[in-house]
Amino acid sequence: MKQFFKTLSLLSAALLLSACSGIEPEEREYALGMLIGGENVSIAAAELSGEAEGRPSCTFLDGRGKTLAQAISNISADTGGALYTGQLMLCVIEKDTLDKKSLSELISLFCTDDDLSRGAAVAVTDDIEALKTADKEGKDITRYMREYCKSSTKTGKGLTLDCDSLIHTLVSTDGDALIPYLECKNGELRINGAAALNNWQYAETVDMQTAEAALWLIHGRKNSIVINSGGNIIEFDKVSVSKKISNGIEYKIKTRARLLQSGGELDTEKAEKELAAKILSAAQRLYAQGCDYSEAAEFYRLKTERKAEAKDISHKITLKTTWKGM
I need a labelling partner for 207 at 20 to 30 A (CA). Which of 152, 182, 193, 316 fits? Predict the structure, then answer.
């Protein structure tokens, strides 16, 4: 059924485009995923003419260019103008090519090309060729990311980012961001932590716990954090978070906690301090990741004023927890 609706969506777009351009729907190449490795770009395109078993067949269209826009233009030219990017669902960037030039080109592309969907998911990877191989072997990277994003939105677990959010974050923080890391290991796909950017450059890959702890400070994010406190396994859910920026950032967080597994006498005050320490560590390590867009510019002002002391911008976290079933 999911594949049916995917095909139906493509067909609807195809009919509209056919009426406007004169190119028949089955002659179109529908870009679903874009893999960027410097001057090399690969586009995973669906071909309605090769549809089998209810799923549009996909192929990779490869191109090069001095800029991202030029590479895509070259790919489109190779298809005779049949490339359509309005159905794009995924954009993956190779980690070694992350720099101000490549990220600025990405921002420019999505801000000037009205066809491109800024709701497309974004990820970073070590090896684009490995992703292409996995896709050709039936792993379907665009479908994997779509299902992962749906699950993350529903459960509040995991790490997701779309192009629109990435653009806002990069612009407002002048190059700091946290991008999901898409790993392909032994042909299997998974989101395994995040690539942290600092001043438009790749800084480090952080584990999922660190990434999720930082995301806890962002308004609207509802993911849970599980900690082990003296053998007791505790799950904390965020209820609300308020922030104040002066010489640093002060967070006041309301949470709900429940004991998943007992390992002895539970010291709730100690558990709260351990959670606060985890969130604080993530905030200090990942700079502006705890800021909403409207606050990030002010945070960046503090960062630039302190220059080399940016990591020492103060954070304070106060927790107020309701313990469930206790």
Answer: 316
Instruction: Give the tens place of pLDDT for each residue, 233-289.
Output: 999 888 888 877 666 677 788 889 999 999 889 999 999 999 888 887 776 665 444
Give one word for 142, left, alpha or beta, with left for phi > 0 and alpha for psi -120 to 50: alpha
Cα–Cα distance, 218 to 238 (Å, whole number): 11
Q: CA 297, CA 199: separation in Å to the nearest integer?
A: 13
Instruction: Mark 219-229 as b/e (b = at least 16 C-beta within 10 Å).
Output: eeeebbbebeb
Q: Enumerate the β-bridge partners of residue 61.
A: 43
How far apart, in Å, do the first and last CA atoms of the chain sit? Answer: 44
Hey, what domains does the chain have and what are their CATH numbers? Answer: 1-206 (no CATH), 208-326 (3.30.300)
Helix ranges, 138-247 (H): 141-155, 163-173, 208-215
Q: Are 175 and 100 in contact (CB under 8 A)?
A: yes
Dist. CA 241–CA 258, nearest whole Å: 19
What does the block give as tokens for 268? 């709730």
Give pTM, 2 decimals. Answer: 0.73
Alpha helices in 44-162 (DSSP H): 68-78, 100-112, 128-136, 141-155
Cα separation, 52 vs 19, in Å, equals 25
Say if residues 107 and 171 touch (Cβ distance below 8 Å). yes
Token pair listed for 141 = 């990277």
Type and span of the H or E element at 270: helix 268-285
